[in-house]
Design goal:
There is one protein chain. The protein is α+β, with helices and mostly antiparallel strands and 278 residues long. It folds into 3 domains: 79 residues, Rossmann fold (3-Layer(aba) Sandwich), CATH 3.40.50; 64 residues, Dna Ligase, domain 1, CATH 3.30.1490; 111 residues, ATP-grasp fold, B domain (D-amino Acid Aminotransferase, Chain A, domain 1, 2-Layer Sandwich), CATH 3.30.470. It is 36% helix and 23% strand. It has 9 helices and 13 strands. The chain has a 5-stranded antiparallel β-sheet, with helices on both faces. Strand 12 and strand 13 form a beta hairpin. Helix 1 packs across helix 9 and helix 5 packs antiparallel against helix 6. It is globular. It starts with a strand and ends with a helix. The model has no long low-confidence stretch (mean pLDDT 96). Bound molecules: adenosine-5'-diphosphate (ADP) and magnesium ion. Adenosine-5'-diphosphate (ADP) binds next to strand 6, strand 8 and strand 13. The site of magnesium ion has 3 residues, from loops.
């Protein structure tokens, strides 16, 4: 298991493995140095990629996969899910419903795109998490102010990605997928005065029943991105029904376990271990 901070999730995965007698080694990505040449030094190893840092995680996955490891999730899935524009394209192509979106590559074309797309719109950095730097743009002046700010940031933020502001109940769904199964799901209600439902922003969780519809769309989304263990985030659009707005490559599941009582870490360890034997 590769990590950079030990959260509840990494602790519970380690404990589940120990309990099952699985040989597990914790590697802090900060202490990892790997030769990128020659032998298949990681052949036969299953790596649970749990690093929070997107860029470190992606590059470590590329290195370890190249050296023969089976990384969960594979590089293809990590790169597709870690970028909201890439994920949007791959979900669209696979016929998985996702919010309408538009992209632009300069300040002026971003404003022009929004004029066509219409307000309100949601601006999202193509790489990011925990709801950070996601803004609700209600009209042109607000949009211009936000976009002008982004122009002073790292070049990644000059890739403009906007989504329709989906009308939905004040909650979204986080479904945990392991292999071909949705093992548990929760509703995440947004905290007071907040429209985003991230638990990191003070959201509240409740059990969400795993219906056939939910299962189908989650499995389709997971297959589309090539994921093995992922957290699929969905909204219940008043107009269009269930849609996937994000697939999380290193999903958190503490609240899912707390609310549903499902042994998510145990299921994840069993899945990884079965790959090892297979
Ligand atoms: N297009 C949208 N319309 C309405 N709400 C949205 C939309 N996109 C995201 N949200 C809300 O914002 C939250 C964060 O968005 P998300 O795309 O999951 O980014 P992050 O990677 O930061 O979690 C979602 O969980 C949802 O509550
Ligand atoms: Mg999210």
């Amino acid at each position: 298991m590769l990590y950079d901070t030990i959260r509840w999730e990494e602790k519970s995965l380690y404990e589940a493995a120990k309990k099952k007698g699985v040989d597990i080694e914790n590697i802090d990505i900060k202490n990892l140095h790997i030769s990128l040449n020659g032998e298949k030094s990681y052949e036969g190893k299953i790596v649970l990629q749990r690093s929070v840092s997107y860029f470190k995680s992606l590059h470590a996955t590329a290195a370890l996969e190249g050296l023969g490891a089976h990384v969960i999730n594979p590089l293809q899935a990590a790169s597709m899910t870690g970028n909201k524009l890439f994920a949007h394209m791959i979900l669209e192509k696979a016929g998985v419903r996702t919010p309408k979106a538009v992209a632009a590559f300069s300040e002026d074309s971003a404003i022009a795109a929004l004029e066509e797309f219409g307000y309100p719109a949601v601006i999202k950095p193509v790489v990011g998490s925990w709801g950070r730097m996601i803004g609700l743009l209600r009209e042109k002046d607000a949009a211009r102010a936000v976009i002008e700010d982004r122009e002073h940031m790292f070049p990644l933020y000059h890739v403009y990605y906007f989504e329709e502001f989906v009308q939905r109940p004040p909650r979204d769904i986080r479904a945990i997928v392991v292999g071909d199964n949705v093992v548990a799901a929760i509703y995440r209600y947004s905290g007071d005065g907040e429209w985003k439902t991230n638990m990191a922003l003070g959201g509240r969780a409740e059990v969400c029943p795993v219906t056939k519809d939910l299962e189908d769309i989650c499995i389709k989304a997971t297959k589309a991105v090539g994921g093995q263990i992922v957290g699929v985030d969905l909204m219940e659009s008043n107009k269009d029904g269930l849609m996937v707005h994000e697939v999380n490559n290193t999903t958190e599941f503490k609240n899912t376990v707390r609310v549903t009582g499902v042994d998510v870490p145990g299921i994840m360890v069993d899945y990884a271990f079965a790959l090892n034997k297979g």
